[in-house]
Amino acid sequence: MPTELSAPSASRGAKDMHYVYMIKSRVNELYTGTTQNIHERIYAHNNNQGAEFTRNKKDFTLVFLEEYNTLKEAGKREMQIKKWRREKKDLLIDNYSHKLPTKK
């Protein structure tokens, strides 16, 4: 289910924020990463300029996005999610798509 991108937090500038995101390919593969500019990052993934895992693949859709104040916080969350089994990632995506809390 495609998710629309929302505007960055009004309390801080967009370039000050860090994001943890998950994108899904048309063959249902998931990629998790961090960025300060989600729009540019999705564009890069869809134009063979992203991470090695996503190169030579296209049509990624954003399925999960969380906002963090620091790169350290975002990196910690990214590593946590990357260690999860697919079923747990799918539950997180489902919560996000239904606008339920995703942070503990």
Mean pLDDT rating:
86
User: Might you state the CATH topology name?
Assistant: GIY-YIG endonuclease
Number of DSSP helical runs: 3
General shape: globular
- Tell me the number of structural domains: 1
Q: Report the sheet-strand fraction.
A: 15-25%
Structural category: alpha+beta
Helix content: 25-40%
CATH architecture: 3-Layer(aba) Sandwich
Physical arrangement of strands within the biggest beta sheet = 2-1-3
Helix-strand topology string: EEHEHH
Distance between the termini: 23 Å
Contiguous uncertain segments of 5+ residues:
1-12
CATH C-level class: Alpha Beta
- Classified in CATH, the superfamily is GIY-YIG endonuclease
Spatial extent as radius of gyration: 13 Å
Sheet with the most strands, sense and barrel status:
3 strands, antiparallel
- What's the number of extended β-strand segments? 3
Comma- or semicolon-separated keywords:
GIY-YIG endonuclease, three-stranded antiparallel sheet, 3 strands, alpha+beta
Write a brief caption for the model:
With 104 residues, this protein is an alpha+beta fold. It has one domain: GIY-YIG endonuclease (3-Layer(aba) Sandwich), CATH 3.40.1440.
Q: Can you give a write-up of this model?
A:
The chain is α+β, with helices and mostly antiparallel strands. It has one domain (14-97): GIY-YIG endonuclease, CATH 3.40.1440. It contains three helices and three strands, in the order ββαβαα. It has helices at 38-46, 71-83, 86-97, and strands at 18-24, 30-35, 61-68. Strands 2-1-3 form a three-stranded antiparallel sheet. A hairpin with a 5-residue loop joins β1 (18-24) and β2. The chain is globular and about 35 Å long. The chain starts with 17 loop residues before the first strand and ends in a 7-residue tail after the last helix.
